[in-house]
Design a protein that fits this description.
kinase, NDK-like_dom_sf, 151 residues, Nucleoside_diP_kinase, alpha+beta, binds 2'-deoxyadenosine-5'-diphosphate, nucleoside diphosphate kinase activity, binds magnesium ion, 4-stranded antiparallel sheet
């Protein structure tokens, strides 16, 4: 939908590698609308909830540890079909399978250091936004460029 929202999080490797500005720039230039953002040292409890669907996978414990090893930059972006389009902008889970021009394809090598998280469906986005943000942290603002982005 037109006012769809997705949850993105720049992972500790993306933050350490100074890719925060580059990543935000890509979504800004695309025409999406940033409605929430914070840098956070995520707790183990939050990360375990975030990745609950992967709890039986062999890499789960390492994944949670890595995600808690430094700050992440959590964001909510809004716009037309943003869930699916953001996933395309991220690339595949494995950077080795990601095309140049995608974030993981341009900046990543290793599947367990793939720079950024993005919700995989509208249902996941809803769950993750609620998990990471309080309602008052979502900022509604008048977008004066909107008519140049959506008909
Ligand atoms: P995505 O982040 O593309 O949605 P996912 O939800 O399947 O991928 O997995 C979450 C994260 O877990 C992923 O970004 C990196 C890590 N991961 C996934 N598969 C992995 C594997 N086979 N080995 C190591 N880490 C993996
Ligand atoms: Mg996922």
């Amino acid at each position: 939908g037109i006012n769809e929202r997705t949850f993105l999080a720049i992972k500790p490797d993306g933050h350490q590698r100074r890719l925060v500005g580059e990543i935000i720039r890509r979504f800004e230039r695309k025409g999406y609308h940033l409605v929430a953002m914070k840098m956070i040292q995520a707790s183990e409890e939050l990360l375990k909830k975030h990745y609950i669907e992967l709890r039986d996978r062999p890499f789960y414990e390492r994944l949670v540890k890595y995600m808690g090893s430094g700050p992440v930059v959590a964001m909510v972006w809004q716009g037309l079909d943003v869930v699916k389009t953001a996933r395309m902008m991220l690339g595949e889970t494995n950077p080795a399978d990601s095309l140049p021009g995608t974030i993981r394809g341009d900046f990543g090598v290793d599947i367990s250091r793939n720079i950024i998280h993005g919700s995989d469906s509208r249902e996941s986005a809803q769950r993750e936004i609620t998990l990471w943000f309080q309602p008052h942290e979502i900022v509604c603002w008048q977008d004066n460029a909107e008519k140049w982005i959506n008909e």
